Amino acid sequence: MTEPTSYSAELEWLAGGQPFSTQFADVYFSRDAGLDDARYIFLQNSQLSERWALLAPHAHFCIAETGFGTGLNFLAAWQLWDQVAPASAQLHFVSAEKYPLTAQDLHKALNLWPELAALAEQLEAQYSGLAPGWQHFSLANGRVTLTLLIGDLLDTLPQLDAKVDAWFLDGFAPAKNPHMWQPPLFRRMAELSKDNATVATSTCIDDVRSSLQTAGFSVRKVDGVDDKPAILCGERSNQPFAVVWQAPWFARPAPPARSERHALVIGGGLAGCSTAHALARRGWQVTLLERHAELAQEASGNPQGILYAKLSPHHPPLSRFIQGSYQYSLRLLHRELPQTENSWQACGVLQLAKNHKEAERQTQLAEQGYPRDFLYAVSAQQASKLAAVAVENGGLFFPTAGWVNPPALCRQLAHHALISTKPLVEAERLERVDGRWQVINQQGEILASAPVAIICCAHESARFAQSNHLPLKAIRGQITHLPVTTESRSLQTVLCADGYISPARQAQHHLGASFRFDRLDNQVSAEENLSNLDLLEALSPQLANSFADYRSQAADLQARAALRCTAPDYLPLIGPMADPALFVERYSVLAKDASQQPIAAAPWHEDLYVNAAHGSRGLISCPLGGELVAAWITGEPLPLPRDLAEAVHPSRFMLRHLIRGDRADRQKANNRLSPE
């Protein structure tokens, strides 16, 4: 039996290596015929081979599943997809799982099926530390996407934004898991289904059959397998059903007719390179515009950035967004960037408790049962052992986190056959002409054009007429470069509290970072070097003492200053752009009565998107932000719960201002921005 956490599956292993769930008193699959059963019940009875062979180039197909388990159904579908679907088509597999298997248990279970080994290896390479929430995986060089909804199905499925082509109604049998097989599940399946979406399930009990029929599926019994004399399959019958109102300002824009899959990305930092990479992996041609001679020359240009995930035990939107983004960034790093002294190191991150309040917050987090390969609590003694330098406070340890060289990551993400980088181009304005966005410079010259444009230039994102309403704020930050000392050379992990210090890279530590609201230049400041050195006292007095001599040399220390970009609520802005004047006009009724439910479509700028305001968390939030933009553009399932996608949606501020009339409040919020 594995060591369970509150979020992990509890297993016993039967003779022959068959996994048995002690939580549901049932097996995951037949030891002798599990793979054959998956192929027959779900693939064959969903007519996937025939449907996929007829897909058009660049088509997108979505499968949704109600129990991921060992991933056997997913791997079987992926194998068939490779065999029959067009090479340019995209498969998106969405699966819910309340109790995910540990990485060790997943490997042991899938090891029973050698013919799936090559696919299982790809999955297992990214499968670890599955904390609750949306877990996003990009596989097969972008051809296959997996989104795991970790949590109770009846909580997660209502938050899914997707259009489903085929349902795998799996999970433990109704008699073993009655909580799942409830009317809300079937209603939500109907709401998410495309016309003629299929459903297949290994059960045929009358309650399931009637619930599917009530939800608008036409179902029939077919021959079963093993101990199941019959199973159910069917199609969405296209019967009308009550559609739940969805706020049009957060709804997907109507997909325009595009003659080509080509996008402009303005900005070559982490946000821009992540967005370009996400689209290129989906087969899109991308033109990446950068005003400097090289990528990552502004806030993304620091030599070391930290995978820093400060979470709240109460799980507000910001904390949930950071958590999911952090885990996706780790997957992307392992997939795209080999670990070297120059690129990145998964050396672990110690978040030290700077005071009693912080210690209480960390204790609450540690007691919530996160997987140990995600985070766990450590004492001061344990932290000192992990860091290999003396620290005076305990904290949280993130064992798979570490530091990254952001320019190296940007270069790697942009190094793709479908990405064309254009340096030294200054985008002054955007114009929509004949179904294409044109990027124009100060001289009126067209620098590039494409049907789709994404603005990814931090606080400069507000420079365009279409985006100048965005409440973006620039905040200066400076890091200090410190040569290694005899004592500091031993530092093994990142230390962070109010600031951070990284293990040495190329014989230098990087210490910071300052937060300045009173200046917007990038000139190095001796004062900020001193304040960065002050941060060391809270991290490690031993290290602070080893660098004490540098205090008198503060003016001569090497450093780097740049401008972060943030929004009043600290969340990024990611998604489609609407016209603010038309927005106010179209939804003016909300200013009088916020309970109204207008149905008019939002006044979208056709095929214009933004990915900005990542603050000091760009290493964590930009990669998933790129995936979110790509999902918006291509019509894929969103990689975030709907409420989080709305929390980062650029329309949120227009909506708040319309309802509250709070332009003055926005200024107050800007003035309250803090380093957190």
Structural commentary:
The chain is α/β, with parallel strands linked by helices and 676 residues long. It folds into three domains: 207 residues, Vaccinia Virus protein VP39 (Rossmann fold); 135 residues, D-Amino Acid Oxidase, subunit A, domain 2 (D-Amino Acid Oxidase, Chain A, domain 2, 2-Layer Sandwich), CATH 3.30.9.10; 158 residues, FAD/NAD(P)-binding domain, CATH 3.50.50.60. It is 30% helix and 24% strand. The protein is built from 21 helices and 31 strands. It has an eight-stranded mixed sheet with strand order 6-7-5-4-8-9-11-10, sandwiched between helices. It has an eight-stranded mixed sheet with strand order 17-18-16-26-27-28-25-29, sandwiched between helices. A six-stranded mixed sheet has the order 20-13-12-24-31-30. The chain is globular. The two termini are 41 Å apart. The N terminus and C terminus are likely disordered.
Provide a compact summary of the structure.
The protein is of the alpha/beta class and 676 residues long. The protein is 30% helix and 24% strand. The strands form six sheets. An eight-stranded mixed β-sheet has the order 6-7-5-4-8-9-11-10, with helices on both faces. The protein has an eight-stranded mixed β-sheet with strand order 17-18-16-26-27-28-25-29, sandwiched between helices. A six-stranded mixed β-sheet has the order 20-13-12-24-31-30.
